[in-house]
Amino acid sequence: MSMHAAALSSPRLQRVLAVLREGRRMTTRSIIRKAQVAAVNAIIAELRCHGAEIVCEQEVVGGRRRWFYTMVKEPAGG
Questions:
Q1: Is 30 helix (H, G, I), strand (E, B) or coil?
Q2: Parallel, antiparallel, or unpaired: how do β-strands 26-27 and 53-61 relate?
Q3: Is the pLDDT of residue 4 over 80?
Q4: Assessment of whether the complete model's pTM goes beyond 0.85
Q5: Nearest-angstrom CA–CA distance, 67 and 57
Q6: In the chain, what are the domain boundaries?
Q7: Cα–chain-centroid distance for residue 14?
Q8: Selection from 58, 65, 74, 1 nearest residue 25 by Cα
Q9: Among 19, 46, 48, which Cα is nearest to 33's?
Q10: Banded pLDDT at 5 (limits 50, 70, 90)
Q11: What pLDDT does 76 receive?
């Protein structure tokens, strides 16, 4: 299945890239707040279509499930 990803120059993709470039594991919530976006999982999928390598880890924290994202390789032309 293929996805139609926004251009890498898209402001929302660029805002999420800027947050991920901090080099830390980021929760979905922290990405939403810092980058002012929604649908983080969809944006991560779009960045992966552009060649980004982003690790997603799931953990239970305080009895609640949390997802953490870490960019290990920038997208081509990022």
A1: helix
A2: unpaired
A3: no
A4: yes
A5: 6
A6: 11-73
A7: 10
A8: 58
A9: 19
A10: confident
A11: 83
